[in-house]
Amino acid sequence: MIRTHRAAAALLAAALLAPAATARASAEGAPADGAPTGRASAAAVSNRADRLSVPRPTGRWPVGRDTLQLTDEKRRDPWVPSAGPRRLMASVFYPARHGGGRGAGARYLSVREAELLLKGLKLDAAFPADRLASVRTNARTGARPAAGKHPLIVLSPGFSLHRATLTTLAEELASHGYVVAVLDHAYESFGTTFTGPAGRRTLTCVACETVEDEPDDEEEKKRLARAARDRAADISFVVDRLTDAGKGVRSGAGRGSARWAALIDPRRIGAAGHSLGGNAAAVAAGADRRIRAAANLDGTFFAPVPRAGLGRPTLMLGTRKGHTPHAADATWPRTWQRLHGWKRWLTVAGSGHFTFIDLPILGGQAGVTDPEAPLSGKRSGEITTRYVTAFFDRQLRGRARPLLDGPSRENPEVDFHTP
Hints:
Helix content: 25-40%
Distance between the termini: 25 Å
Largest sheet: 11 strands, mixed
Strand order of the largest sheet: 3-4-1-2-6-5-9-10-11-12-13
Oligomer: single chain
Order of helices and strands: HHEEEHHEEHEEEHHHEHEEHHEHHE
Number of strands: 13
Structural class: alpha/beta
Number of helices: 13
C-alpha cells in the first residue's frame, strides 16, 4: 500500500542526504570515511558526490536510448478523466552498434523532475535537484542500433517513482541484446514531463493523493488493484506501438514506430516491474498472449494474475523480510499456488523494498547503507540484474541459465522457496 512506499522512502532520504552531510562534516573539520579534514577534503567529497553514476553494463553491446511520448486515444486517463486520453512517457534502451556513433550521454532525469521527486520525499530543502538530475548514465542518444531482431522487455516503475529509477536494469538488459521500454504512467509519479501543443508540462502524482484519500486499507488495495490493471493495459498498448510499423508514434527525435518494429522480434516479449509495476507486469502477461514471461520485483499482487496467464513463466524476486512464504503479504503464497507454469520464488537477505532499483546503488556510492536493508548497493544491483537477465534469457531465448536452478555459492544472499 502507499504507506509502505512512505516507509521505503527513508532509504532514498538517507542516500540523497549523505553527500551533503558528509561534505558539511569535512568542511567543519570532522573526518569522513577516513578522509583528511578541511576545505580540500570538502571539495573532494563534493566531487565524489557529483560523480554518482549508473553501473557500467556487463553485456557485449553499447547502449543507445531514445524517448517516446505515447497517447492511447482509446482510453481516458483513469486519474484525471478531464485530461483526455491516457498518456505515457517511455525511455527506450537498445543494443547499439560498436563504432556506430556514440552520441550524447542520455540524461538521467530533468532538473524539474528531480525537484518534484525530492519535494515528494520532503528532501527538497536538503539536497540540490541538479545533483540528482546529473547522475551519469551509460546510454547514448542517437546511437545506431545493432542489426537484427531483438527481444522486447517493457518495464514499469514503483508507484510514485520516476522511470529513471529502473535505469540500471534497463541498461543491463539492453547491453545483452534486448530492446527495453521503461514507462512513466501519467499522474502516477511525483513528476514526469510531457510535451504538447502548449509546450512542456510536468505532471505530478494525482494518483498518490487519490489513493491516500481512500477511507481505509481495503479501499486502498482495491484502488491499487485497478491501477495495476490500468498499467497492464499501458504495457500492452506500448507493445502495440513498438511492434506495429503501421502505427505512427512521435518521438523526441522525430522518428516513428517503424524504427522499433524493425528492431523487435514480436515472438519474444516480456514484462517486468518494481512494486506496483511488478504486479502490472504479471497481469499484462496474463491478459496479453504476446507477453510470454513476467518478473515481479517486490510487488504485492493487488490485482490477481488472470486465469489465462497462470501458465506463463513468472519470476517473483523480493525481500526476505516481506516476501518469504510466511511473511505478512499473503498475495505471494496465493499467487504461487495458482501459477502452474515455469516459476521461481526468490528472496534476498538484507534487502529492502528499493533494493531492486537504482536508489541503493546511488546511495552506496555515497557511502550510505540503510540499517534495515544492509545489503550493499553494489550487490543490490548485481543480484537484480543477474537474476532478471537470466530469467529472460531462459524464457525468451531458450538459453540454459543454471543460476535459476537453485542456490549458488556466488549469491549466498538469494533463497529459493518452493512452498
